[in-house]
Every structure is written in C-alpha cells, then in structure tokens.
Amino acid sequence: MTETLSEARDKAGRLRADIRQFYARVMPEDLKRKSRLHQVLDKDDYVRWMRLLNDQGWAIGHWPKEHGGQGWSLLERFTFEDELARLGCPWVIPFGVKYVGPVIYAFGSEEQKRRFLPRIATTEDFWAQGYSEPGAGSDLAALRTEAIREGDHYVVNGQKVWTTYAQWADWLFCLVKTARGEQAQKSISFLLIDMKSPGVTVKPIPTMDGYVHVNEVWLENVRVPAENLVGAEGEGWTYAKYLLKNERTAGALLGMACHALARLKALAREQPQISPERTAARIGELELRLLALEVASYQAVESMMRGTDHGGEASLIKLRGTELYQDIAEAAIDLLGPAGIAWDAAALHAASAPPLGPEDAGGIVKDHFYNRAATIFGGASEIQRNIVAKGVLGL
Question: Whole-prediction pTM value?
Fold first, then answer.
C-alpha cells in the first residue's frame, strides 16, 4: 500500500462527508425526487447524473492520477458507492467508468487511451457490456461470438444477451472468439464495437417490472476496425479477469440494503399493523443481518488492501448483500398491504400518485420485481457459493 490503512480511513471519512454535502446542496431536486419515488430514469437522467459526479471529480475518482482520476484506495471506492446508495442516489453506471475505462488504460494503445478515456469520463460515449450469451453466462469461456480477421477489419458474427442499456449505448466492449481449435480461454479477444455499425441489432427483453433494462444484441457481419482490438489477440480472457478483479467490491449492495431498511422502518411506523410485534421481530432480524454485512464488507475491503484476503470475500458480500436486499424488499411489499399489489408502470414515468398507499408505493413494487434478478446478475448466487467453497473452505 502507498498509504496506511489509517490514512485511507481518514480519506474515506472525508469523502463520505463530502458526498452528504453534495447531496444536500448540489444534487438537483428533480433527480432526488425521482430517486425517492424509485421512478425509472431515462438515458438523459443517467448522463446528467454521471456528469454531475464527474464535475465533483468522482466519476473516475478510482482511476490513477495519470489518467485523470484521484487514485482512490479500495476503501474510498467502496465508501463512495456505499454512501451514494445509502442516500438513495441513482446507480453509478459502471460500464464506461468502472469496466472498460480501466481495461483501456491498463492494456489499450496510446491512441485508444486518447480517443476513448476523455469521452468515458464525461459520458459523451455511453457504453454497454457484451459478455453473456445464450449458453455462456456463468460459463463465459463457452462464448461463441466470432471475430474473423479480414485485412484491416474483424468481421463479427454472434449474439449477446442480458446486455444492460444496450438500447442507449454508443459503444459495446465485447468478448469474441478470434481463433478456432485453441483452448477456450486462449481464443478470446477484447473488441470495441461501434453500436452504429451496420449489422448491429438490439432487441429488447422486458423484465418483470415492465421496463427494458436488458437486451439481446445481434451481430451479423459487423465490420470492426482492427485498431479497435484492445491489447493482443487471444488475451481477452486476461483482460476480462482484470475487469472483474478491478471491480471486486460492491459497496452499493450494502448501501442499497441500508436505504431499503430505513424505508421499511418508516413504513412500519406509517402503516397500521395487524401484528406489530411480529413486524418488529422481522425488522430486528433484518437489521442484525445488515449490521453483520456492514462489518464483513468493510473488513473484506481492508483485507484486500492489506493483501490478506482469501479470494472469496467479494463473493460473500455479493451473496449476502443481494439476498438481504431481496428479503427487505419482500418485507416492504408485505407492509404495503393492498398497495403492494397495485401496479401502474406509467405512473413511474409520470410521477403521478399511485392508486393506493404512499407516493413511493409503485416504486417499491417496481424495485421488488426488478431485483429478483439481483441474485443472478453479476455472478449467480450458486457461482458465488462455489467460489467461497473453493477459495476459502478449500472444498
């Protein structure tokens, strides 16, 4: 470490205080309201949000200083997402600033750095992630999308699925096969694809909440300049692992659970209860789980900084955080009573009053529906348990 753990804690504490000041004094009221009501945000909302963070120096605060960042420690990175989520702020869209940006500055050419990094920082380019495929989700090495070199271009054919916000994306960073007959991991390359290229088709996949967060992306004879290959052919698996290692913490899971539990407590005070004692016991159990998650999360981050982690800490945080968040959401639906079954998707865009319950009732239902996927995306719970079993328990 270039700084002591005590120094990192002090910096993280100051960052948390700065975020609270930003929320109170700078964050626009319309974004606060949309977030408070769990309304659906559109692309313009997210772009504005990311640029607000960039104006504070935070969108790429985790990048090294030589690439325009602040060189945050892991603890600062975790604290940043944790505090934003506790306040109920919008999601920090990760695909540019957290995923492809670090891959480009670590492995890309100088031309790629000059071309892409500034536009990632300012969200002038909106990115999507082309990893999962039908039959290649948890087993990503089984992907079948091919990129065949023809002169100074690659010709790409294949299909990606569960591609978040591909309908808004300007660029897709994509894992593709560039060799046949090789070991699976040695045949994969990392390619940057302009979404306006002929042959790129985005097909929406509506989710349980009635919206389109994810998509299929079809790639049919898409010609991609060879200069858009990041690093070397056949090294894409290495870069993909770097991307995942670079994002080993998930502070938003803890923060989201904390924010949801605070709303659950407020609902318990607001809503008449048939069995208040049973509700109190349920909330007490959830709060104990949250406190345990908080301690485990910060201990895990600090062990990563010391280099004493066992490799399963991030999986444990993801596993426990997503399950806890889902359980809190279910408890909130129960407390809403009849309002927990009233659903009006259009109202979440128009911010109109729900037919029943408090003004954020519809948003609570929406979040409950969408976050049924939380134990699948980003590595399914079954995969996380396998990682913990092998990396920590030695099974």
Answer: 0.92
